Every structure is written in C-alpha cells, then in structure tokens.
C-alpha cells in the first residue's frame, strides 16, 4: 500500500527524518515531491518506532520542512531487467546514460538480491581464461568463484580490469553464453570515459553491461552500484543461462562511501572509522557469486581493491580476504621496474584452483607446473636475499641459474602487453620453457611421466633454438 505524508521533522545532510510513520520497511523506496513539483527519490535506512530516516539519492538542497509531500511506495529499489541490457551503459543507480533510452523490462528485481540456499549451491568447477599468464597458470579464476585483486593507489589496476574484461572467455561452445558486468565506483570523468572507450573500440561492449558511478555523484548511489551490477548479473546467469564475470572497481571507494553514510547516521565507528557491520555488508555482496543447482549459468566475481598505503592489513582488504577464496596481489616494486601486469606471485593464490584445472579442464600438467613455478620463484627470492649479502659472484652455479630464471620469469612470463592475449596452452608452454633452464634434479614437484613429456621436449626445443641462434650469428659475421 502506498502511504503519503506532508512535512518533514528534520533535514540533516542527505538524510531527512519523518515522524508518525507506520508500517514502514527497511530499504523501502520513498518519493519526495517538492513545492515546485520536482520529485526526488530516496530509501528508508533507519526505523525507530514511528520515526524513519530516509536517504535522498540526489541530495536535500531546496527541500522544505513544511510543504514536502512524502510517499512510501511499499517496495524496495528495483532494477529493470531484460536481455537488452547487454551492451548498455548505466549510472550507479541503474539509469541508462548511453542515450539509447530506457530499458523495456521483462521483469523488475530488488537490487538487494535473494540469499542463496547453501544446500542448492554447486561446487565451482572449470575455469575462466583471462589471457594473462600469471593469473591463468598460477592463480586460475574458477567459474562461480570470488577472487579479489589487491592493488595500491595509483597502480595500473584500471588497465588490468579492462584487459581482463576484454579478453576473458570460457572454453568451447559455451563462450557464446559469456558476459561481463563491469561496475566502477567513485571514478573520475576521464577514467569513466576510458572504460567506455576501451570497450567500445575493442568491440567487446556488446557483451558488457556497464555501471558507472562518478566521484561527484551522491555517495548513496555508490552504495547502490555493486548491488545493481550483481542484480543484473544474477538475472543474466540464472534466468538467461549465461556465465557472467562481475568486475567491481574500486571496492575501497564503496567502503569509504559506506563509512561516510554510517557517520551521517550517527553510528558508532569501528576500525579506522568504518562501521562495525562492514564485514557483513561486504559478505552480502561477495556471497552473491556462485553456481546454483538446476541453473545452467554462473556468477563469478573479480572485485578490485586499492589498499591505502599498500597496507594489506587495512580493514577493507583484510575483511575481504576472510570472505573470498584467495587473492591476486599487485606489487609496486614490480610495477616500478616495468612489469605489467605486476602480479606478486608468492602472496597470491586461488583456493578453488585445484578443482577447476587439470585433465578435462585445462591440461594434465597444469597443477604440477604451477607448483613447480611457485617453488622455483620462492627459491629465486631466497637467492636474491643471499646475493645481496655475499654478492652474486660468490653464489653457487645452481643459485646463479635461479637468478637467471627469475629475471626471465619476470620479463617473459609475468610481463605481457596490454593487448597481448595468451591462450592457456601458450602460457603452459611458456612455463615449461622457463623451467627448462633449471637442472632436472631441481624439479621436485613434478613426476617423471610429466617431466619426460613436457620438460624434456621444452629443453630440447630451447637447445635447438640456441644452436640456431649461434649458427645465424656465425653466418652474419
């Protein structure tokens, strides 16, 4: 039932207070009609008896205490949904901003979503290929997983987000049912235009749904943005049968908006001023990823967080790490040395990787190769620490080989062009090519069968290429 009220009790920033309100619901949508006929929309964010607090989406400037008419619409905020949302661009509240008109909805769904029954969840299987070797081989993204990227302020995580959205694919005929929902929160106008232009020029916009919340937009809209994006993803996945990758950047901007919103309500702050319910609020977003029994689609999340002062113990990345299934950490020193994408291998992991790779998914050698690359690169860091103490000249021949391996690993495996899209087979082959630099007795994470099949062939190919390079040099001289 739609109820109407005349006048307001109080205006405080973007919040208005009404007294004598009965049968109101939390998150209920409210329309405020001003004296000049303008209508502004808000939602109920707090209820205390018959007093309710309403957050106004577009601010409270020009609102009168006496003559404002308020209507409670009796429903939560909803998003208009249909298959035609693919290729469209929306603002943070789900309104079209691409000049193509309104969406003609097949249905409307609450942006708060519905909780997934744990019993009906299916275990995530199979992988999503990002075209980036370090991610595909060493911390594989699995369908239905939530795998965050931890970045530092000013690093090139925006470029990485666009590259993943542009290159991501799934295997086989199902790729025609693959879509990306891209949500940007608190970005500047030039960054928003960069996102839009990048997808448009690459021709991938037709499979992307974009939600853009600008830094000068109201903070309440920033809080709505990931919920609108996930509602669109759930519709495409569970009702249209698509596999959807949701990229959310930057979740730290979302958390800061939540902190400002909590402060305006007078709530008691927790760590670093964030509300005490930050964990449950983030969980309400991240847990909307997954696969549901009886549904052919899936929702996979790749949230991106910028860590203030590169502090991984900051509340936002810290709590995110508890909720999600691993993390991809970007390293500032690698970025400064020209490595792109600057993925820090050792602190990064994908906890569901083991169940979505190997024979039948990627290739039989994938798991063993990833383990050996991790072990070899960990040895590289130890050797580098040792060489900084005693000098590289005093290292053993094996340690010097590891140093050479580390340099090639960073220059050839981690580093790849912004437009370079490597298949999983290319990335696996490159991994074996680098391992062929090391003596066979150093490869203790791989069984003899795989060594015979992949290591020996990679070593033979490397030796052949070396001989050809020497012969060409002699001919040219």
Automatic annotation (TrEMBL):
<dbReference type="GO" id="GO:0007035">
    <property type="term" value="P:vacuolar acidification"/>
</dbReference>
<dbReference type="InterPro" id="IPR055190">
    <property type="entry name" value="ATP-synt_VA_C"/>
</dbReference>
<dbReference type="GO" id="GO:0042777">
    <property type="term" value="P:proton motive force-driven plasma membrane ATP synthesis"/>
</dbReference>
<keyword id="KW-0406">Ion transport</keyword>
<keyword id="KW-0813">Transport</keyword>
<comment type="function">
    <text>Produces ATP from ADP in the presence of a proton gradient across the membrane. The V-type beta chain is a regulatory subunit.</text>
</comment>
<feature type="domain" description="ATPase F1/V1/A1 complex alpha/beta subunit N-terminal">
    <location>
        <begin position="10"/>
        <end position="65"/>
    </location>
</feature>
<keyword id="KW-0375">Hydrogen ion transport</keyword>
<comment type="similarity">
    <text>Belongs to the ATPase alpha/beta chains family.</text>
</comment>
<dbReference type="InterPro" id="IPR000194">
    <property type="entry name" value="ATPase_F1/V1/A1_a/bsu_nucl-bd"/>
</dbReference>
<dbReference type="Pfam" id="PF00006">
    <property type="entry name" value="ATP-synt_ab"/>
</dbReference>
<feature type="domain" description="ATP synthase A/B type C-terminal">
    <location>
        <begin position="355"/>
        <end position="455"/>
    </location>
</feature>
<dbReference type="InterPro" id="IPR004100">
    <property type="entry name" value="ATPase_F1/V1/A1_a/bsu_N"/>
</dbReference>
<feature type="domain" description="ATPase F1/V1/A1 complex alpha/beta subunit nucleotide-binding">
    <location>
        <begin position="131"/>
        <end position="350"/>
    </location>
</feature>
<keyword id="KW-0066">ATP synthesis</keyword>
<dbReference type="Pfam" id="PF02874">
    <property type="entry name" value="ATP-synt_ab_N"/>
</dbReference>
<dbReference type="InterPro" id="IPR022879">
    <property type="entry name" value="V-ATPase_su_B/beta"/>
</dbReference>
<protein>
    <recommendedName>
        <fullName>V-type ATP synthase beta chain</fullName>
    </recommendedName>
</protein>
<dbReference type="InterPro" id="IPR027417">
    <property type="entry name" value="P-loop_NTPase"/>
</dbReference>
<dbReference type="Pfam" id="PF22919">
    <property type="entry name" value="ATP-synt_VA_C"/>
</dbReference>
<dbReference type="GO" id="GO:0046933">
    <property type="term" value="F:proton-transporting ATP synthase activity, rotational mechanism"/>
</dbReference>
<dbReference type="GO" id="GO:0005524">
    <property type="term" value="F:ATP binding"/>
</dbReference>
<dbReference type="GO" id="GO:0046961">
    <property type="term" value="F:proton-transporting ATPase activity, rotational mechanism"/>
</dbReference>
């Amino acid at each position: 039932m739609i109820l109407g009220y005349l006048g307001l009790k109080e205006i405080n920033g973007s919040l208005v207070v009404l007294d004598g309100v009965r049968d109101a619901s939390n998150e209920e949508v409210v329309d405020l009609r001003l004296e000049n006929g303008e209508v502004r929309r808000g939602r109920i964010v707090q209820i205390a008896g018959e007093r309710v607090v309403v957050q106004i989406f577009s601010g409270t400037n020009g609102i009168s205490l006496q003559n404002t008419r308020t209507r409670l619409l009796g429903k939560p905020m909803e998003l208009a949904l249909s298959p035609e949302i693919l290729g469209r661009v929306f603002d943070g509240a789900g309104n079209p901003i691409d000049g193509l008109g309104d969406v003609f909805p097949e249905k409307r769904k609450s942006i708060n979503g519905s909780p997934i029954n744990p019993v009906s969840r299916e275990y995530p299987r199979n992988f999503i290929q990002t075209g980036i070797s370090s991610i595909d081989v060493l911390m594989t993204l699995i369908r239905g997983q939530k795998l965050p990227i931890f970045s530092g302020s000013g690093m090139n995580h925006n470029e990485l987000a666009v590259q993943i959205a542009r290159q991501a694919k799934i295997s086989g005929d199902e790729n025609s049912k693959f879509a990306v929902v891209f949500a940007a929160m608190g970005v500047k106008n030039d960054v928003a235009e960069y996102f839009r232009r990048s997808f448009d020029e690459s021709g991938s916009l037709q499979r992307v749904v974009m939600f853009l919340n600008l830094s000068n937009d109201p903070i309440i809209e920033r809080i709505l943005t990931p919920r609108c994006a996930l509602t669109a993803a759930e519709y495409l996945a569970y009702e249209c049968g698509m596999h959807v990758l949701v990229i959310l950047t930057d979740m730290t901007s979302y958390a800061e908006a939540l902190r400002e919103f909590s402060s305006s309500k007078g709530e008691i702050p927790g760590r670093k001023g964030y509300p005490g319910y930050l964990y449950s609020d983030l969980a309400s977003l991240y847990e909307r990823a997954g696969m549901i029994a009886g549904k052919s689609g899936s929702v996979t999340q790749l949230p991106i967080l910028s860590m203030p002062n590169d502090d991984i113990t900051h509340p936002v990345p810290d709590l995110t790490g508890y909720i999600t299934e691993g993390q991809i950490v970007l390293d500032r020193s690698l970025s400064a040395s020209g490595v792109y994408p600057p993925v820090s291998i050792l602190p990064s992991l994908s906890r569901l990787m083991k169940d979505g790779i190997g024979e039948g998914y990627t290739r039989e050698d994938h798991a063993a190769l990833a383990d050996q690359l991790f072990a070899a690169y960990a040895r590289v860091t130890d050797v580098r620490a040792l060489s900084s103490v005693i000098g590289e000249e005093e290292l053993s021949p094996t340690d010097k080989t590891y140093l050479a391996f580390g340099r090639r690993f960073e220059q050839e495996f981690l580093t790849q062009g912004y437009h370079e899209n490597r298949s999983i087979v290319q990335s696996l082959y490159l991994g074996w090519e680098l391992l062929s630099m090391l003596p066979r007795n150093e490869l203790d994470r791989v069984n003899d069968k795989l060594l015979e099949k992949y290591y020996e062939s990679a070593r033979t190919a490397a030796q052949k290429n070396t001989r050809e390079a020497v012969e060409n040099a002699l001919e040219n001289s």
